[in-house]
Specification:
The structure is a single chain. Helix content is 49%, strand content 16%. By secondary structure, the protein is α/β, with parallel strands linked by helices. The strands form 2 sheets. It has a 5-stranded parallel β-sheet with strand order 2-1-3-6-7, with helices on both faces. Helix 2 crosses helix 3 and helix 7 packs parallel to helix 8 (133-143). The longest helix is centred in the middle third of the chain and has 14 residues, at 82-95. It starts with a helix and ends in a 14-residue tail after the last helix.
Length: 198
């Protein structure tokens, strides 16, 4: 529950003299959806927050920042080799003790998760069997443009291609605490992470 976002949305709507029905019509949603957001029962998606910012003539960064400040960050790792996935999840859980860290072997399952949960940070293997981590990055960013993506690979040759996809970083395997902390310091869209010194 994000009470500050709820209060901010309600205040901005009132300042513009809009009813919940009028805002709902402008944003192409139902009035009950707006009511849930203003009660703090639900948080709109990043795409919907962008739409609301346009309707209310406010900086989208302000609304997104308020929406994510109380939220437990969702961090995912997508890696098709189980031993590497398990080892990476152990490191991520240690470095990000206040985050919800989830691993996936299959890109399609990771995308399903991202559609239901706002992903703050995604660690993606570049070679995912017959699929590409580059394409997965594009799909994750289409769902939420503020997802930070860090590529994982054993091959430094991929570095140049990685930067053209909108990723925040690039890490060589194996994953270490120090390498993860270095990536966290350079995210495009920082988010609250708790105590990273543990």
């Amino acid at each position: 529950m994000n009470s500050r976002f709820a209060e901010t949305l309600k205040k901005l709507r009132a300042e513009r003299g809009l009813s919940q029905v009028e805002l709902a019509n402008m944003a192409y949603v139902t009035q009950p959806a707006v009511a849930r957001w203003e009660k703090g029962n639900r948080l709109p998606s990043a795409e919907m927050i962008t739409r609301l910012a346009q309707c209310l003539d406010v900086d989208v960064r302000k609304l997104l920042s308020i929406a994510t400040e109380d939220e437990v960050p969702n961090v995912i790792m997508v890696e098709d080799r189980e031993v590497i996935l398990n080892g990476g999840l152990s490191v991520l859980g240690k470095v990000l003790p206040d985050a919800s860290v989830v691993g996936f072997e299959w890109p399609a399952v990771a995308l399903d998760y991202a559609r239901e949960n706002r992903v703050s940070l995604a660690f993606l293997d570049i070679e995912l069997g017959t699929e590409s981590g580059f394409e997965l990055c594009r799909e994750l960013l289409a769902i939420n443009p503020r997802t930070n993506v860090v590529y994982l690979t054993a091959y430094a040759d991929y570095a140049l291609d990685a930067w053209s996809t909108g990723a925040s970083g690039f890490m060589l395997k194996p994953i270490t605490d120090e390498a993860v902390r270095a990536q966290l310091a350079n995210l495009r869209y920082p988010f609250p992470m708790g105590d990273k010194s543990k």
